[in-house]
Structures are given as structure tokens and as C-alpha cells.
């Protein structure tokens, strides 16, 4: 692990966003080090959308090299629906599929614009990735699939729907 120039965190450090940003800034400031690979959504969903990115990676400066990844389900679905399948069933399905086919696009590097904040920069990068993969952009976090939806969020969506109707 020491030879691959990873940015390592202790479990307790993950809860301190300032410390995480500091370590990432130190890494990107050293031009001799390789770029960092960060999965900004923190989770995979059903291959149709790109969810909200964590803004912390966009606050540290530096150049973002976006990569769009979209799995082709021709030989099997790579996404684990934990409400439908146990982990053992999922692993069995993956191990017995013919192949896991993945489309991967390396997109042009992107830099934060002068008047742009981290959230807008993250959304701009997300939109480019979604467009390349033919996916829709979602404004919510991937953790939503693991948590109970707040009543206020449901009511807000219902009110928006009522206005449309």
C-alpha cells in the first residue's frame, strides 16, 4: 500500500471533513504524486442515473479528471439490490455470469471556474458524466436508498407534483 501513493485515513478521521480535505490537499500539492481516484457518489445504483456528488473533493482545488462508468447488463446485472438478494446470492450471480461488461469514458479535465463554488462545480462535473453515459442527473445522495425518507421531503415532492397537475 505504501508504494501506490494512496491517501490513507483512519476510521476516526473520516468523520472530520477538515482533516480529510487537508490530507487530499497535501497529496495534490505534491506534483510528484499520482492523481487520486475518488468515487464521488459513494455508492452504485441501477445504472440509469448519476446521484449527488460529495462536495468535499471539489473544495480542495486541483484538476478533476472525470470518468464515466456504465455497466452493460448483457451478461448479468452487476448491481446488488440488498433488499432483494442476499450477499451470497449476489456473489454467486457475479461469479457465474459470463462476463462483466463495463463502458468507460475518460472525459476532458475540468477545473473550478473563477466564481464557482464547490457545489456548482460538482454539479457541472456530474452533468458531463451523466451526459456521456446517457444517464439522468439526480439531486439526492446515494445514501437515500438506505435510509427512511423524511416526511418533509415527501411533502415537498407532493406539492411540486400538485402544482404540475
Automatic annotation (TrEMBL):
Coiled coil: none annotated. It comes from the Eukaryota. It is a multi-pass membrane protein. One of its GO terms (molecular function) is glycerol-3-phosphate O-acyltransferase activity. GO terms for cellular component: endoplasmic reticulum membrane. Pathway: Glycerolipid metabolism; triacylglycerol biosynthesis; Lipid metabolism; Phospholipid metabolism; CDP-diacylglycerol biosynthesis; CDP-diacylglycerol from sn-glycerol 3-phosphate: step 1/3. Keywords: Acyltransferase, Endoplasmic reticulum, Lipid biosynthesis, Lipid metabolism, Membrane, Phospholipid biosynthesis, Phospholipid metabolism, Transferase, Transmembrane, Transmembrane helix. CDD domains: LPLAT_LPCAT1-like (cd07991). This is GPAT3 acyltransferase. Residues 9-70 form the Phospholipid/glycerol acyltransferase domain. InterPro entries: LPCAT1-like, Plipid/glycerol_acylTrfase. It is found in: Endoplasmic reticulum membrane. Belongs to the 1-acyl-sn-glycerol-3-phosphate acyltransferase family. One of its GO terms (biological process) is phospholipid biosynthetic process.
